[in-house]
Amino acid sequence: MIKNRAIAAWLFAVSSLVVLCALHGGWIRMARSGVPVAEWTPSVALLPPTTDAEWQQAAEAYRRAGAAESERAGLSLAAYRQRYWATYTHRLLARLTALAFVLPLLLFVARGAILRPHLPRFALPALALIGQELLGAHLATTTATAAGTSGPLLAALHPACGSLLLAVCFWMGLGYAIGQPRPEQPRVKAPVRRWSVAVLTAVSVQALGGMLAARLSAGTVTDSFPLMTGRLIPDGLLELSPWLTNFTANAVTVHFTHRWFGFVVLGLAATLNRCAKLELLPPYLGGGAAALLHGVSLQMVVGIAMVLLGTPPALALVHQAVGLAVMGAALFTCHRAFRS
Q1: DSSP label at 188?
Q2: Distance CA 283, CA 196 (A)
Q3: Phi, psi at residue 23, to the nearest 5°?
Q4: DSSP classification of residue 309
Q5: For 127-178, what is each residue's pLDDT tens digit?
Q6: How far apart, in whole angstroms, are the C-alpha atoms of residue 285 and residue 273?
Q7: Do residues 90 and 25 touch, judged by C-beta distance below 8 A?
Q8: Closest CA to 334 of 185, 205, 192, 204
Q9: Per-residue CA distances from 338 to 2, 43, 182, 197, 229 (Å)
Q10: Which ranges of the chain have pLDDT less than 50?
Q11: Which phi and psi (to 5°) does residue 228 adopt?
Q12: Rounded Cα–Cα distance for residues 82 and 118 (Å)
């Protein structure tokens, strides 16, 4: 990519908005402070209720939609308003992120900063943005079930689209910020490149597992470590049929795999850091590998503490924030390994 600081700043700004939106959505989900809407139209999506009658009507629709839930039935109008504003803020953040991506993109194309032959590279983040919006609208108007594979998996795809948008924008931002490597710059050797790809892949898989765990409330199936409910191999681990559905719909299996796959990520990050030290890489690349290892270690410590303390929302949010930082470090390290 040709070095362009303005485009890089734009892509980093979009990445920051995605992170903010992800953390805000994570807090709403973990604190159960959001509300679904029975109808999704442009006016409902953008304009909140304005009169007491409209607020009362919206609250009644919310209570009827969850008639079987005693918590909804007893929800006061004041509590409903508080939840509504949390959800409404999340919608506005999502639309701000979309506008922050689309409008500058059109401006850069119009000014010739982004050449038309380069436009296809922006197709993937655009598709991720569209997918996130459509899934968000669907999840806001329907209740995803945890009884089958489509419910939690479909719900997890919403933040997954956001993660894809973040990853692609951050990766391209690095390209525009740094530009093409100089011819005299030494190339990073193949082992470091391979390990950086392995770590980035493992971090992505672990992130998807975390999204599934959050949708299934899998963090609450046990409050012990390393045992789960007093056993190393817990009961109900693979009880669903067909067998593969356990990895998307069984809270015990999702928790178990997310818990132990974290050690795989840690091992890969440690190996990459070791290779970086042996290869005597440039400080920015060696520092990226070290930061990645420290980030993975911190995330595991926070994750274990979260389980032992009963998954408090604040600590779960810290766990998510550290996970996003780990993803950024993995992207940076892999990018520099291939672009140096």
Answers
A1: P
A2: 16
A3: -65, -40
A4: T
A5: 999 998 888 877 766 643 333 344 778 888 889 999 999 999 999 999 999 8
A6: 10
A7: yes
A8: 192
A9: 16, 46, 13, 10, 44
A10: 67-68, 143-150
A11: -115, 120
A12: 44
CB 314 within 8 A of CB 31: no
Three-state SS for 219-284 is HHCCCCCCCECCECCCCCCCCCCCHHHHHHHCHHHHHHHHHHHHHHHHHHHHHHHHHHHHCCCCHH
Six-digit token string for 213: 């765990």
Distances in whole angstroms, Cα of residue 44 to Cα of each of 23, 36, 63: 23, 12, 17
Q: What is the full DSSP assignment across 125-154? A: HHHHHHHHHHHHHHHHHS---SSSSHHHHH
| CA pair distance 139, 118, nearest whole angstrom | 34
pLDDT of residue 143: 47
Q: What residue type is assigned to position 172 of the chain?
A: M
User: What CA–CA distance (Å, rounded) separates 293 from 188?
Assistant: 19
Can you tell me the distance from the alpha carbon of 253 to that of 221, in angstroms, rounded to the nearest whole number?
10
CA dist 186 and 117 (Å) reads: 29
Distance of CA 106 to the CA centre of its chain: 26
Is the separation of the CB atoms in 11 and 176 below 8 Å?
A: yes
Record the tokens describing residue 195, joined without a space. Answer: 């390990």
- Where do the domains of the chain lie? 1-180, 184-340
| Residues 7 and 113: beta-carbon distance below 8 Å | yes
* Among candidate residues 292, 276, 293, 296, the one with its CA nearest the CA of residue 340: 276
Mark 210-232 as b/e (b = at least 16 C-beta within 10 Å): bbbbbbbbbbebbeeeeebeeee
Peptide bond into 49 cis (omega under 30): no
Report cis status (omega within 30 of 0) of the bond before 242: yes
Cβ neighbours of residue 274 closer than 8 Å, sequence gap 6 or more: none
The size of the chain, in residues, is: 340
Structure tokens at 63: 């209570």
